[in-house]
């Protein structure tokens, strides 16, 4: 019996792809979810996993072929002898007794997301010799964006851990071995886990670059040694060549200043902890933003009397009808969408020597989590109602705190709102989230005396800060944007009338 391997869904508006690389050849044994080939679209690179365990039969779409969605790529023949790929037979001898009376099932790194090529094993929830159920969580991986939980592919006993905590693994690495079946016997716990061999093996083999990348490098006279590959195993993709062609020559990085000597009595009281990949990414992106954008911040303040009165009057009815709490974020999101229509450059980005104006608003809402700051994106926020926005913010906020956000949910934002007021911040200058050109900083609501029509009144006031890229946004546009946000919040009826 044979099973067809077809082109998966490629994404919105993407109708075709090019077969870039086949990792397997006809006659090769393949395991379930083992990567068979890689497809390249004009946007992303897509890996195609094997739907079953067996033997790769006919390859219908060769490397370089252009295929549409659901097109036939290859066939796989099922068979007991081909249930495990050849590398499984080369497992460490310590794992052999564990398979006695049962099958050895490899635990592989799951799909990490677009452009993510490696992860760090942060925590093992199980130890060698532990019994595990199918889909029970074995370990947690940490990438530079999200945490990924790895479930057990089968019920049995954890026989071997090949990637211990702290190990860095690539997207095709083996993490562990499960002995499945009634006769599964745990491997001797005293055996030290072997280091992950997959990354080293991958580094030692030749990596074929994407055909379109080779063509573009030849056209532009770019040496492959000067291009950083973002594809699997460091494979150079078309977008990598485009990035290398437009990137300015990097300035030599200044040498890091050595840490000052620490007295011995202080050193024993210090604790050195390796930065998580998420924290490293936050540090790198924020510094890149400062180095790249001509960042400037303008300030204003807003009287939230009307918003608070509206909230108080309708919050119970709103929650009863929509099943969502009426917060401040929907008002600020609506006000920003309204202002972005009038000042579109704040919602644009610079691409080389072009300015890309976005006729939509994908609103990033910065959220603090135990792991660090993440920015889930509310797509097409300008088309959403107050209720839709509140539901989306609540749902993505919970997923962010639980570490469940996917890569796709944090990509594509066009503008960002950051609410430091929830932590008590009275005034701050937010840093841009590149390649975006604007970010709004919200702050603490504080009762302050204000002069209203010649009289001193106590009003709930908030400072607003707009950081913007002065290369694309002029001071007039930045001030206009902030004033429009202020006007919409101080008189929410303006939002209904598009004023």
UniProtKB/TrEMBL annotation:
Cofactor(s) annotated in UniProt: (R)-lipoate
EC number from the UniProt entry: 2.3.1.61
One Gene Ontology cellular component: oxoglutarate dehydrogenase complex
GO molecular function: dihydrolipoyllysine-residue succinyltransferase activity
Region (Disordered), start-end ranges: 245-266
Record bears the keyword Transmembrane: no
Highest taxon above the source species: Bacteria
Pathway stated in the Swiss-Prot or TrEMBL entry: Amino-acid degradation; L-lysine degradation via saccharopine pathway; glutaryl-CoA from L-lysine: step 6/6
Keyword annotations of the record: Acyltransferase, Lipoyl, Transferase, Tricarboxylic acid cycle
Catalysed reactions listed for this entry: N(6)-[(R)-dihydrolipoyl]-L-lysyl-[protein] + succinyl-CoA = N(6)-[(R)-S(8)-succinyldihydrolipoyl]-L-lysyl-[protein] + CoA
Span of domain Lipoyl-binding: 2-77, 104-179
Biased composition (Low complexity): 256-265
InterPro entries reported for this sequence: 2-oxoacid_dehydrogenase, 2-oxoacid_DH_actylTfrase, Biotin_lipoyl, CAT-like_dom_sf, E3-bd_dom_sf, PSBD, Single_hybrid_motif, SucB
Domain Peripheral subunit-binding (PSBD) positions: 208-245
GO terms classed as biological process: L-lysine catabolic process to acetyl-CoA via saccharopine; tricarboxylic acid cycle
Gene3D superfamilies reported for this sequence: 2.40.50.100, Chloramphenicol acetyltransferase-like domain, E3-binding domain
Similarity annotation: Belongs to the 2-oxoacid dehydrogenase family.
Quaternary structure and interacting proteins, as annotated: Forms a 24-polypeptide structural core with octahedral symmetry. Part of the 2-oxoglutarate dehydrogenase (OGDH) complex composed of E1 (2-oxoglutarate dehydrogenase), E2 (dihydrolipoamide succinyltransferase) and E3 (dihydrolipoamide dehydrogenase); the complex contains multiple copies of the three enzymatic components (E1, E2 and E3).
PANTHER family in alphabetical order: DIHYDROLIPOYLLYSINE-RESIDUE SUCCINYLTRANSFERASE COMPONENT OF 2-OXOGLUTARATE DEHYDROGENASE COMPLEX, MITOCHONDRIAL, DIHYDROLIPOYLLYSINE-RESIDUE SUCCINYLTRANSFERASE COMPONENT OF 2-OXOGLUTARATE DEHYDROGENASE COMPLEX, MITOCHONDRIAL-RELATED
Role description: E2 component of the 2-oxoglutarate dehydrogenase (OGDH) complex which catalyzes the second step in the conversion of 2-oxoglutarate to succinyl-CoA and CO(2).
The protein's name in its UniProt record: Dihydrolipoyllysine-residue succinyltransferase component of 2-oxoglutarate dehydrogenase complex
Organism of provenance: Actibacterium atlanticum
Highest classification ranks of the organism: Bacteria, Pseudomonadati, Pseudomonadota, Alphaproteobacteria, Rhodobacterales
């Amino acid at each position: 019996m044979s099973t067809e391997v077809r082109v998966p869904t490629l994404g919105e508006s993407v109708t075709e792809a090019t077969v870039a690389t086949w990792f397997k050849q006809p006659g090769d044994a393949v395991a379930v979810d083992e990567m068979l080939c890689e497809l390249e679209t004009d946007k992303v690179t897509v890996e195609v996993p094997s739907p079953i365990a067996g033997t790769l039969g006919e390859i219908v779409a060769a490397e370089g072929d252009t295929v549409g969605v659901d097109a036939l790529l290859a066939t796989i023949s099922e068979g007991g002898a081909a249930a495990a790929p050849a590398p499984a037979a080369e497992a460490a001898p310590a794992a052999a007794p564990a398979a006695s009376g049962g099958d050895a099932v490899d635990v592989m790194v799951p799909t990490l997301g677009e452009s993510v090529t490696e992860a760090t094993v942060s925590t093992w929830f199980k130890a060698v010799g532990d019994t595990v159920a199918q889909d029970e969580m074995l370990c947690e991986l940490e990438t530079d964006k999200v945490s990924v939980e790895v479930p057990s592919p089968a019920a049995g006993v954890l026989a071997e851990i090949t990637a211990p905590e702290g190990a860095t693994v690539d997207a095709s690495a083996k993490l562990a071995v499960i002995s499945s079946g009634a006769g599964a016997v745990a491997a001797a716990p005293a055996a030290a886990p072997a280091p992950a061999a997959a990354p080293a093996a991958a580094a030692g083999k030749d990596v074929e670059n994407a055909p379109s990348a080779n063509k573009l490098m030849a056209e532009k006279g770019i040496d492959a040694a000067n291009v950083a590959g973002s594809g699997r195993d460091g494979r150079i993709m078309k977008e990598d060549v485009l990035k290398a062609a437009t990137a300015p020559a990097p300035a030599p990085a200044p040498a890091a200043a050595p840490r000052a000597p620490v007295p011995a009595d202080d050193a024993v009281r210090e604790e050195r902890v390796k930065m998580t990949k998420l924290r490293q990414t936050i540090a790198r992106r924020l510094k890149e933003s400062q180095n790249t954008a001509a960042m400037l911040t303008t300030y204003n303040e807003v009287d939230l009397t009307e918003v608070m009165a509206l909230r108080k009057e309708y919050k119970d009815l709103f929650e009863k009808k929509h099943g969502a709490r009426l917060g401040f974020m929907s008002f600020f999101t609506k006000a920003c969408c309204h202002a972005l229509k009038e000042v579109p450059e704040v919602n644009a980005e610079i691409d080389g020597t072009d300015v890309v104006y976005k006729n939509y608003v994908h609103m990033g809402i910065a959220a603090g989590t135990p792991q660090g700051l993440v920015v889930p994106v509310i797509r097409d926020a300008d088309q959403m109602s107050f209720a839709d926005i509140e539901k989306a913010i609540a749902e993505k906020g919970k997923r962010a705190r639980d570490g469940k956000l996917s890569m796709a949910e944090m990509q594509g934002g066009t503008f960002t709102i950051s609410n430091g007021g929830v932590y008590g911040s009275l005034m701050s200058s937010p840093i841009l989230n590149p390649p975006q050109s604007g970010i709004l900083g919200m702050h603490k609501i504080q009762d302050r005396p204000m002069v209203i029509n010649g009289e001193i009144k106590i009003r709930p006031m908030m400072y607003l800060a707009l950081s913007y890229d002065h290369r694309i946004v002029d001071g007039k546009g930045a001030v206009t944007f902030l004033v429009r946000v202020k006007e919409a919040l101080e008189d929410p009826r303006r939002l209904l009338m598009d004023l």
